[in-house]
Model the fold of this input.
Amino acid sequence: MNKTEKKPGIGWHLKQRMTSGVIHLFLIAGSLVMIVPFIWMILTAFKTKTEAISIDPFYILPQAGWHIENFIEVWNSYNFLLLYKNTLIMIALRVLCACLTATLAGYAFGRLKFPFKNFLFALVLIQMMVPGQIFTIPQYLIVSKLHMLNTQFALVLPGIVTAFGTYLCKQGYQSLPRSLEEAAEIDGANVGQRFLFVMLPLTRSSLVSLGVFTALFAYKDLMWPLLVAPQAGATTLTAGLSRLQGQFVSDYPQIMAGAVMAVVPMIVIYLIFQKQFVEGIATSGGKL
Amino acid sequence: MKKMTSRQKSEAIWGLAFVAPTIIGLLILNYYPIFETFYQSVCKTGDFGIGNEFIGLKNFVTLIHDKEVFRTLFNSFRYAAVSLPVTIAISLVLAVLLNRKMKGRGIYRTIYFLPMVCAPAAVAMVWKWLFNQNYGLLNHIFGTDINWITDPKIAWISVIIVGVWSGIGNNMILLLGGLQDIPKDYYEAAAIDGSTGIHSFFHITIPLLSPMLFFIIQTGIIGALQLFDLPFMLMDQSSRAWPTVKTITYLFYEYAFEKGDKGYGSTIVVFMVVIIGIITFILQKTEKKWVHYE
Done:
């Protein structure tokens, strides 16, 4: 091929096209690796058990029609309605509590002067540095001593406040120009009014990030619901899945039906709120 | 304390009131537990988990001689040592390829990111099925007969495969963000000096991405130590391969909750805190050598 990089000509365009083609080929191959497990999960969920384990011939699509019975059976015997309800309420409460406490504290740390501010903020930072397992045993004992095992309270408790969220909100408030608040202050607004009407609406993006992060974290968590809500009717999707796997050891179509029901709602939400999800991850980084 | 004007006083009251919920919550839910865990680590848990008997550093002496602690720690480090470089390399390539105007950019991003919004518990279940020796898709496709999750020589690699598959999207997004912050004129200036793509990549892209890479490495190592749900859901705990993938966090879970030995479980956590402290210290020391901040 002609080396005409400096002066774009036909050769240059051809080369560009080729490069772009190779890149696409590479990205498509990668996408297949990412997506095939999902497709296989869905296809298996619609198969009968015999179909799923038939080695030869190697069927891809369910042969005996799309078998919905797996979903019905798993839905009923594992009470997925309750699992969804528990998970949804837990996520909603955690997001609400985290956003509420974090935005208040974040505003104060980012904007106000008050006694012991540095010391109190150090408490926030140190919490972020220690591994979460250090809280687990005592938090479990708190729940257990209050006789609150297998309740919504137990599921939500560790997420009522968030050091990470406080830090995130503080960054958000600090990045806003001072003049906004000063103008409101001249107009006679007190701190509460300035926070509520001027500053809070401007930090929507950090709150959305925090909300997405909190929701995903709560949805993914396995150890805590396993510990505090072992009972079938009180637990969340993830802990419910671990019971399902124990029960249907080799009934893969049913296990896959359970997996589909556990991941599909979040995937749908993700596809709708993609921008917010990606921003939420980008700001919260590897903490998830 | 200095005399405050009424305006300052009011601001102080508002400030304290605003941080109060968070601080009280942190004290009860995080700081009391930290002290309680340290306290329990020097206690022997009574039968049925009732009553603590102070035994000094006995648990720590046991821990130092406990081969399982070091084996699980080794498992966690091996996971980090292999999965982190592989994940970073793949996500870096993807991020570089996607950091341009192109068709389907959004679709690729969506697809690679998909595992990030799925519960690891569900992801592990799907992969367990893919890994199935007799009926699994992987052995079918490759025509192999590999014991992906029951062979002690292979199981740890299988866990890493799932870990990498799940983690690529996250790191890709982070690195893509880092790439977009690099000013285009750096590359233009380098091109005038005759720098080619690969040369620019190693002399402009990598140095400018180094803070993000450092962040990914640091959180990745600590995250590997805290790995729990993926191996827990992927493997049978009775399998002979289980000891080769069991992580230190699982060991903590096992002692504290399955065996009811909260004292020794706490000792393991304190040990983890120390290890994480050492890692953080070492990383901070090496940071200046290769991480470039502007």
